[in-house]
Amino acid sequence: MQFGFNAPTAGALYGVENLTRIVVGAEAMGYDYATFSDHVVIPTNIDAKYPYSSSGEFPSGSRGGRHELLTEMAFVAGMTKKLRLVSSVMVVPHRPAMLTAKILSTIDVLSGGRLVVGIGAGWMKEEFEALQLPDFAARGKVTDEYIAAFKELWANEDPKFSGEYVKFAGVVFAPKPVQKPHPPIWVGGESGPALRRTAKLGDAWYPIGTNPENPLDSLKRFKVQVARLRKMTAEAGRKPDVVGLTLRVTAYGESVPALAGDGERRLFAGKPADIAADIRALRDVGVGCLDFGVPGNTADEMLGNLQKLRTEVLALV
C-alpha cells in the first residue's frame, strides 16, 4: 500500500521555501506521493455548491493566493527524486486538450515517470465562466473527450482525433510519456457519472469520503460503492478488477466523530491503532493508495504531523 499527503498549493505554506521543505522532508520520511489541488481563479461570488462540506460553502481559506497546478507539479518534480506527483484533481475542461496533454507528458518525462493524472469534471460554474470555457452543463462530455484525446496523443505515433470538442491530425506529438501506454489516470468523484467515467476510462477510482450526497464515511458504505463500480466496469466491457482503488482522507484522529452517517464506525476516527485497523480493512478491500490532508500552520508543524502520522499510524499497518 502506498501513502501520500496533500502538498500546499494555496494558503500560508505555499511559498517556495515552505513548499520545498515540506515535499523534500516528506519524501525523506518515506511518503510515496504528494497531491496537488486545482483552481485557476477563484470568483469573488460563488453560488455553486461545494461538494465536500455539509453547508455547500467553499472554504474561505481557499480564496487567497494559489499556484497553478501543473506548474507547481513540474517545480516539485525538480525538487524531488522519488515522490510521485498526483493532480488531485485536475479539472479537465479548464485547459485546452492538446496543450494539457503536452504539459502532462513533459512532467512525466522530466520527472522520470512519476506523474499520476487525477482528473475531475469540475463543480464551480462561476470558474468555468471566468475562464470562458465550453458550456458548464457539457463538462462531463468535454472531460471524457479530452481524456480520450490525451490517450491518443500519448500512445500513437500518428495521432488522429475527431470529436465534438477536439479535432487533430497530421501532428507530431513528442516526447511521449515515460509511462506506457500513458501515466495512470485516477478518476475523482463519487457520483454515478464519476463512477461510470472511472469504469470506462480510469486506471483507478479516487474519491473523497466527505461528499454528503455520496458519503463514504464507513467501511460498509465504501464496499457498497466498490461493488457498484465493479459492476459498471464489467458493463463497460472491462475486467471488473482492472480499476484500482485509491482514497483521499481529509480528516483523521480523535476529533473525528466516532460514528458514520449510517451508524457504523466512521473511518479514520479515534486513536492511532483504530485508524491503522481501518487502513488494513481498506487494504483488504483492494485500496492500494491512501493520502491524507495533514494539518500544520507552519512547515515545522506540518512536517511534525507527517512524521507523527507515519510513526504512530502507518507503522502499524
Overall tally of domains: 1
Q: Per CATH, which architecture?
A: Alpha-Beta Barrel
Strand content: 5-15%
Mean pLDDT: 96
**Rg on CA atoms, Å:** 19 Å
Query: Structural class from helices and strands?
Result: alpha/beta
> Number of helix segments?
9
- CATH class, named Alpha Beta
How would you describe the overall organization of this protein?
- This protein is an alpha/beta fold.
- It has helices spanning 16-29, 69-79, 97-110, 125-130, 139-155, 192-201, 219-235, 272-285, 299-312, and strands spanning 2-6, 33-36, 84-87, 90-91, 115-120, 161-162, 167-168, 185-188, 204-206, 244-249, 287-292.
- Helix 8 links the parallel strand 10 and strand 11.
- It starts with a strand and ends in a 5-residue tail after the last helix.
Secondary-structure map with pairings?
Elements: E1 2-6, H1 16-29, E2 33-36, H2 69-79, E3 84-87, E4 90-91, H3 97-110, E5 115-120, H4 125-130, H5 139-155, E6 161-162, E7 167-168, E8 185-188, H6 192-201, E9 204-206, H7 219-235, E10 244-249, H8 272-285, E11 287-292, H9 299-312
Parallel strand pairs: 1-2, 1-11, 2-3, 3-5, 4-5, 5-8, 8-9, 9-10, 10-11
Antiparallel strand pairs: 6-7
Salient structural properties:
317 residues; alpha/beta; TIM Barrel; 8-stranded parallel barrel; 9 helices
Structure in a nutshell:
Helices cover 37% and strands 14% of the residues. The chain is an alpha/beta fold and 317 residues long. The protein has a single domain (2-316), classed as Alpha-Beta Barrel (TIM Barrel), CATH 3.20.20.
